[in-house]
Design a protein that fits this description.
The protein is an alpha+beta fold. It contains 2 helices and 17 strands. Strand 10 and strand 11 form a beta hairpin. It is elongated.
Length: 242
């Protein structure tokens, strides 16, 4: 079997990951605070044969995905519980999988008085506790991240940042998990923008362009695999006639 088929196959697999990632970005083009993911391609110099005189081959692969930290556009809403977060910062939230993070700043007060995200996850304070307020006390959020109700400060938002936030991973519904290489969360000092929301940075136009490019590359690698396969078939046919 031709060695080149392995390089073409690794390239096709890499483009499959790119297609899946781009499809996810396209599906979340309208999700508040969503930051698109992008595959990280790498070339692997491998030696298929044991002989040191054999040539090495380059294989394309995907080592991981990274989050695009480019801020999305900010849209004013005028709602007292809507916030747009500063770059590279995240709200701490509680989920059934443990503490997670989000940039979706569309918040609301649940029926039990808990401050929640639009996905229903409780928002945590800087002390790591769910924030609760009286819904009838006209709650609002200040640029300093204070949650105020009835003229008094109830809590401060658990706003955090990471050394490598691009290493965070999407879990759906705008929720992010912090992988070990993202670093430990630490308190963010920047102010939030109140009465506004950050739109997704994954625009439909960009996502469609990336989707078409990945699809074309996948088709090119597939044709290359078929060409190698056909060449191998001809070699076997000729050899069997001799």
């Amino acid at each position: 079997m031709s060695k080149g088929i392995y390089a073409a196959l690794s390239g096709a697999v890499a483009q499959t990951v790119a297609l899946e990632t781009t499809a996810q970005n396209l599906a979340n083009a309208g999700t508040t605070g969503y930051h698109g993911a992008r595959p990280i391609f790498h070339e692997v110099l491998s030696r298929a044969a044991r002989s040191p005189r054999e040539g090495a081959e380059r294989h394309m692969g995907v080592s991981s995905t990274a989050m695009d930290m480019t801020p999305g556009a900010t849209k004013a809403t005028g709602q007292p519980l809507d916030i747009a977060l500063p770059p590279r910062s995240f709200l701490s939230v509680s989920t059934d999988r443990g503490d997670r993070y989000t940039r979706a700043g569309s918040l609301r007060i649940g029926s039990d008085g808990t401050l929640r995200t639009s996905a229903g996850d409780p928002v945590l304070s800087d002390a790591g506790k769910p924030i609760k307020v009286d819904p009838a006390s006209a709650p609002a959020i200040t640029p300093d991240g204070e949650v105020r109700a009835g003229g008094a400060t109830v809590a401060r938002l658990g706003l955090v940042t990471f050394d490598n936030p691009e290493r965070m991973t999407h879990e759906g519904a705008g929720v992010l998990a912090a992988a070990p290489d993202a670093g430990a969360p630490r308190a963010a000092k920047e102010k939030v923008e109140t009465g506004a929301l950050e739109e997704s940075n994954a625009t439909p136009v960009r996502a469609m362009t990336d989707l078409l490019q990945a699809n074309r590359l996948f088709e090119a690698f597939t044709r290359t695999i078929e060409a190698f396969h056909e060449a191998d078939r001809k070699v076997v046919t000729i050899a069997s006639k001799d």
